[in-house]
Amino acid sequence: MEEIKRLINACPKTQTEIAFEIGYGNQNLITMFKRGVTRVPEDKIVPLATALGADAPRLVRLWCSVYSPKILAVIEGMMRNTVLSAQELSWIEGLREEYGEDHVPMFLRRLIKRAPASVG
Q: How far apart (Å, rounded) are the C-alpha atoms in residues 113 and 116?
């Protein structure tokens, strides 16, 4: 995934530091992730996002859209929504704090229900 490469390149940490933070003993797999030679294992995508300072829900959604699109469709269908990024979720939480859970104006409720998935 090109996004993994971009995030690794933008991260101020060394690949060795990133590898250590997600439980690897050396940088070899980080280099392989970056080059697209191997995919990030599903159990490492959230730790990798954290190590890179990236939005974990957004990266998980992107990972699923590439490697498990059917599972992503099932999850989003069950949730009746798309997976929200941390930024989108904070926007919705801010509206709820400002207006109260039950007093959000009707047009804002419609916006919340239709919040788009953001992968960029």
A: 9
